[in-house]
Amino acid sequence: MARVLHKEQSEIHVDYVNAPNQLARGSPSKNHTGKDRRKLYRLVGVSFGLLCILQIALNISLRLTLYIEGLSPSITDHYFKQGWVYFRPSFYYISSIKKSWQDSRDDCLRRGADLVIINSREEQDFTRKFHRISWIGLTLRETKGEWKWVDGTPLTKSYWGSGEPNDYEGKTEDCVEIKFHDEENSWNDIPCGDQNFWICEKTVAL
């Protein structure tokens, strides 16, 4: 009986002694998780800090560019707050809703601007970056048979998509949109009453 009792006591003792060891084995896992969390928080903090620094650098760079080009901060801030984007030598407004070509132009005129006139390859590449099918200021409405910009100048350099302009399916397609954004030749003619986003352009005097 004494042996049995001693054995039971021993087993009880062993179980008692081993219990903290099992807890101890579990604690490194918790500590490890805590360290992982601290590393993650540190990484997020560092990333956020780098983004802030990058944003500040971009703002300084933009302001320096505008200063060199003679644009005052008060003018640029005014346009930026209204959603305009600057690309030398003009400001551009990209709509968030769709309208017909004429209604789109009327909106630009109310803003003291007009639908965008594309004068260079650089400007053509710039307008494609917005990845929105958008009206531009090119039309046949005023002079049938001759494409002209909204300021009355004739089209000299074009960026028509393949097979355009074509009056597709016999439709009267007298207005132009930027459609094929992945291609340099991105223009497409469509009916002026269709609904599209649009791009306004405003040149600010230095």
Automatic annotation (TrEMBL):
SUPFAM superfamilies associated with the record: C-type lectin-like
Keyword Disulfide bond attached: yes
Family annotation (Gene3D superfamilies): Mannose-Binding Protein A, subunit A (3.10.100.10)
PANTHER family referenced in this protein's UniProt entry, alphabetically: MANNOSE, PHOSPHOLIPASE, LECTIN RECEPTOR RELATED (PTHR22803)
C-type lectin domain mapped to chain residues: 87-201
GO MF annotation, one: carbohydrate binding
Organism: Lates calcarifer (Barramundi)
Listed InterPro entries: C-type_lectin-like, C-type_lectin-like/link_sf, C-type_lectin/snaclec_domain, C-type_lectin_CS, CD209-like_CTLD, CTDL_fold
Segments passing through the bilayer: 40-58
Keyword annotations: Disulfide bond, Lectin, Membrane, Transmembrane, Transmembrane helix
Name listed for the protein in its UniProt record: C-type lectin domain-containing protein
SMART domains: CLECT
CDD domains: CLECT_DC-SIGN_like (cd03590)
